[in-house]
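Changelog-adjacent note: as of this version, every example in the card shows the full chain rather than a window. The one below runs 284 residues end to end.
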Amino acid sequence: MGAYLRRLRKENDLRLVDVVKAGLVGSAPTLSRLENGESPLKPDRLLSLAQFYGVTDPDELKSLERLASRSQDTQWWEEFRDAIPGWLERLISVEASAQEIRTYEVHYVPGLLQRPEYARALMKHALPGTSAEDAEKQAARRDRAVRVRQTRRDVFSDSGGPDYYALVDEAVLARPVGGAQVMRLQLRELCSLEEDVDNIHIRVLPFSAGAEAMAPAPSITYLSFPAHREVDMVYLEVRNGGSYYTNPEDVDRYRLVLTSLWHKAADRGETLKILKRYIDKLSD
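Full-length structure tokens:
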């Protein structure tokens, strides 16, 4: 909602101080915090700002009011804050309201497609314990983090859930995270999801695609939302951190990157063959 208001303000060629002078907010820093999602937006303030920026459509205003009211509700993941990295909260909070999610991964199976065994093996390295007591606490934290990751997958079973397009580099398939048995189960899961879930689409980017199939970041997630709901977003993740982009130029650039990579990936039939070939290797 903050990014949406910032876009409206800029489309009207208004500065932060112009909005302050109009009496809509008390100070430029306050408005900046609202636009950056650092302060909560109450429904009445959101509607006042949107109308000041020229939004008059009743349906759009009602939609904004619902969003503002929903943002004040307790979300399911808030009880797991101890197990969620701070930079990931924003992504989790908007996944369910996305209309489409496109993602690319070069190191690991995308989080929304991970089986619990695979996720736990990854987190064992990401959250190691340094002492007997610490190791026990970290194990409990890993279990909670795995529960979060599995609960996030509910977006696919919800009515009106997003269409999900996952690009997986072949290097991911060749890296047996958790050992052969865990990896075999995970690859079978990818096959099942592609074959059985209508709104999940998985493609493998094969080694044969060459240098032209290299992305500018190892992990890219693009989220698009219904018109007038939220601003499209790109999330780039690196080890121990992540960055969000809502600037239209940045969003368009990464959207085009993902589209280009999708066309270079193996088609559905070939993707399933590649997955099954790696499953057979792990069965030897």
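Structural remarks: Residues 147 and 225 are 26 Å apart (CA to CA).
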